[in-house]
Design goal:
There is one protein chain. The protein has 7 helices and no strands. Helix 1 packs antiparallel against helix 3 (69-79), helix 3 (69-79) crosses helix 7 and helix 6 crosses helix 7. It has one domain. By secondary structure, it is an all-alpha fold. The termini are far apart.
Length: 166
């Protein structure tokens, strides 16, 4: 019990700091994306063939997901990497203080068995909504439905072995 109060205090501090930083990062990403789109067409890494190789069809989407992985990556980096780590490795800076540990989104053996609806529910309503850790925050009040589907597409793009639509 004596460790519970400091742990909760740390988690709340990290959460508040990540939200405050995330708001500034989100605005910066929007400004940079807008400027980049006006200056030049897609970079070689964003061409349809490269996106198809990493994210599904030529639109950069999985056929079974109405979301775009490249758009989801920006939201994921703002809201998810604090716990789930860069590239979904489960080793974000807050992960050391969390029990249970955050899901490894790059673990295809685990993630590929989850339905898209399950992942959407976890992102929107939090871990407790599906019987997982209540420390997994609900992001449905921050992200709209389209952004959540973009995050889903990005999470699916991280899986090794690669995710394929059912």
């Amino acid at each position: 019990m004596r460790f519970l109060v400091p742990a909760v205090t740390i988690l709340l501090t990290l959460g508040i700091a990540s939200l405050a930083c995330g708001e500034n990062q989100d605005n910066e990403i929007k400004r940079n994306a807008t400027a980049a789109e006006m200056v030049s067409p897609a970079t070689p890494a964003e061409t349809p063939l490269v996106l198809a190789a990493h994210h599904g069809d030529a639109k950069g989407q999985f056929a079974c997901i109405d979301g775009t992985a490249s758009a989801g990556e920006a939201s994921y980096n703002i809201y998810c990497t604090t716990c789930h780590g860069p590239g979904g490795n489960g080793e974000g800076p807050a992960a050391a203080a969390l029990t249970p540990k955050p899901a490894k989104h790059n673990d295809g053996a685990y993630m590929n068995g989850l339905t898209n609806e399950h992942i959407i529910k976890v992102v929107a309503e939090g871990g407790a909504a599906v019987g997982k850790s209540p420390l997994m925050a609900p992001w449905g009040g921050v992200l709209n439905e389209a952004q959540i589907k973009d995050v889903l597409a990005y999470v699916r793009s991280l899986a090794v072995p690669a995710y394929t639509c059912p």
